[in-house]
Design brief:
By secondary structure, the chain is an alpha+beta fold. Helix content is 32%, strand content 25%. The protein has 5 helices and 5 strands; from the N terminus they run ββαααββααβ. The strands form 2 sheets. The chain has a 3-stranded mixed β-sheet, with helices on one face. The chain has a two-stranded antiparallel ribbon with strand order 1-2. A hairpin with a 7-residue loop joins strand 3 and strand 4. It is globular, with a radius of gyration of 21 Å. 10% of the residues are buried.
C-alpha cells in the first residue's frame, strides 16, 4: 500500500490504511516529497541558503548595468540551477510612469542575448515608494 497525492488529499492505493499502520514513514513519504526532476525538496531548501549561481550573477550584473538607478535587483534561478528559467524582481525609478508591459519590455531588451538561451523568465517590476 502506498500513498498518492491528488490535489490537496492523500489517498492510500491498495486499500484503506489499517489501524496501527504509520501514516507516514520515510519510504512512504519519499515519492511525495520530490521536487524538480525528482530531486528531494531538501536540495531546494539548501539551495535557498547557497550563494548565487553563475547565471544569476551574470543576469544580475547585466541588470545593474542597464538599470543603474535600481534600488533592488533580485535574480533567482527557478530551474533547479541549470539556468533555463529565472525569476527577476527589480525596483527602479526607470519604471516610473511606464505601464507594466513597457517595464517588462525594458527588462527583456536588457537581457535579449541571455533570453535566447532560456526557456522562461518571470519578471516582477516596481517603482520605489518614497
Amino acid at each position: 500500500m502506498s500513498p498518492r497525492l491528488s490535489g490537496d488529499k492523500v489517498t492510500w492505493v491498495g486499500g484503506p490504511r489499517q489501524p496501527g499502520m504509520a501514516a507516514w514513514g520515510p519510504a512512504a513519504a519519499a515519492p511525495l516529497l520530490r521536487g524538480i526532476r525528482g530531486l528531494p525538496l531538501l536540495h531546494h531548501v539548501h539551495r535557498m541558503f547557497a550563494s548565487q549561481t553563475e547565471g544569476e550573477l551574470k543576469v544580475t550584473q547585466i541588470l545593474k548595468e542597464n538599470f543603474p538607478r535600481a534600488t533592488s535587483i533580485k535574480v533567482t534561478d527557478i530551474s533547479g540551477g541549470c539556468g533555463a528559467m529565472y525569476e527577476i524582481q527589480i525596483e527602479s525609478e526607470d519604471f516610473k510612469e511606464k505601464r507594466t508591459v513597457q517595464q517588462h519590455q525594458m527588462v527583456n531588451q536588457a537581457l535579449k542575448e541571455e533570453i535566447k538561451g532560456m526557456h522562461g523568465l518571470r519578471i516582477f517590476t516596481s517603482v520605489p515608494k518614497h
